[in-house]
Design goal:
By secondary structure, chain A is an alpha+beta fold. Chain A folds into two domains: 44 residues, Arc Repressor Mutant, subunit A; 76 residues, Alpha-Beta Plaits (2-Layer Sandwich), CATH 3.30.70.3460. Chain A has five helices and six strands; from the N terminus they run H-H-H-E-E-H-E-E-H-E-E. The chains are: A alpha+beta (148), B alpha+beta (158). Strand 6 of chain A pairs antiparallel with strand 3 of chain B.
Chain lengths: 148, 158
């Protein structure tokens, strides 16, 4: 990665141009050719640094609800419980953290009742008792941008 | 809520743009609209906040960001707005949410902090703690990522 790559990444991790020739817009900002931008982005994608150029949606605007759930799982049951949780379509993130609540996952579903049902079902399947559901009240920030 | 063309456009954007000179033209063809109409629809979805962002999703580990921490803070109700605004200004923070307090869980403000290593993260967190004047917090480092994906709202049955 050189300075030009960094310049490209800084632009496109912020906002991808909504223009008939988006790569040309990027090229003009950096003073290079459109072809070079395309080649470099292709290369950055091949190395895995760029996963995708895609849209992220606001679940609430699509009439979905989302929440964060934490559970306490005994170490010996962890793999089994993780497998059950990962199977759920609306679970997008499932992380182990260094806390007595050691497993944290985000859940998106069509409505509150669906979320409740999914969590009840999970409790039954895994026999997990300690589960907290932490709905968001206010979003102060949601922006993933890395200094490159 | 969305017509057939909208759903096609949204599904294409959800799955990702092609790295070609005219990526919106491909989507337009699939949706049976003109390129201009397609771009106009996307602009509308962005203006309405349906699309939060259209951008490159990067692999932060490959960029050297090996540490991420969820920090949970107990903030007095009257201070939450101030704290949320201050924390949002830190570039190392990607997410900052106020969440409901439930039995067995006292923390009401959640932040995700990213850094090259744990030491860097802790430095930022201490700085935040100073600025907002809150000492009651816990750092929950990520030990394992078992699932990291994104929601498919469009496609398949929809």
């Amino acid at each position: 990665m050189d300075e030009v790559d960094r310049g490209i990444l800084n632009i496109i991790q912020d906002e991808f141009p909504l223009n008939k020739q988006p790569f040309k817009v990027i090229a003009e900002r950096l003073g290079i050719s459109e072809k070079e931008v395309l080649q470099r982005i292709e290369q950055l994608r091949n190395t895995g640094i760029i996963k995708r150029i895609r849209a992220t949606f606001n679940p609430w605007k699509l009439n979905y609800k989302s929440t964060l759930v934490a559970i306490k799982v005994p170490e010996e049951k962890l793999k089994e419980v993780v497998d059950v949780i990962n199977e759920i379509k609306g679970v997008t993130h499932n992380y182990k953290r260094n806390h007595e609540y050691n497993l944290w996952f985000t859940l998106i579903a069509e409505d509150n009742i669906k979320i409740k049902n999914i969590l009840n079902d999970l409790k039954q399947k895994t026999k997990i008792k300690d589960m907290i559901r932490l709905d968001s009240v206010k979003t102060f920030k949601l922006k993933l941008k890395f200094a490159v | 809520m969305f017509n057939r063309e909208d759903k096609i456009i949204l599904e294409c954007l959800q799955e990702g743009l092609e790295i070609i000179e005219r990526p919106y033209e491909v989507i337009a063809e699939k949706a049976g609209l003109s390129e201009d109409e397609t771009i106009e629809r996307v602009r509308y979805f962005k203006d309405e906040g349906i699309i939060r962002s259209l951008k490159a999703v990067l692999n932060h580990k490959l960029l050297g960001y090996n540490s991420n921490v969820m920090v949970v803070w107990k903030i007095p109700v009257e201070k939450v707005y101030f704290a949320g605004k201050v924390i949002a200004n830190f570039k190392e923070v990607s997410h900052c949410y106020e969440r409901e307090v439930v039995e067995g869980w006292k923390y009401n403000l959640f932040t995700m902090v990213h850094g090259k290593n744990a030491v860097d993260c802790i430095k930022v967190i201490e700085e935040i703690s100073q600025e907002i004047g809150i000492k009651d917090y816990e750092m929950l480092f990520t030990e394992e990522e078992y699932k990291k994906s994104y929601m498919r709202y469009f496609g398949e049955e929809s």
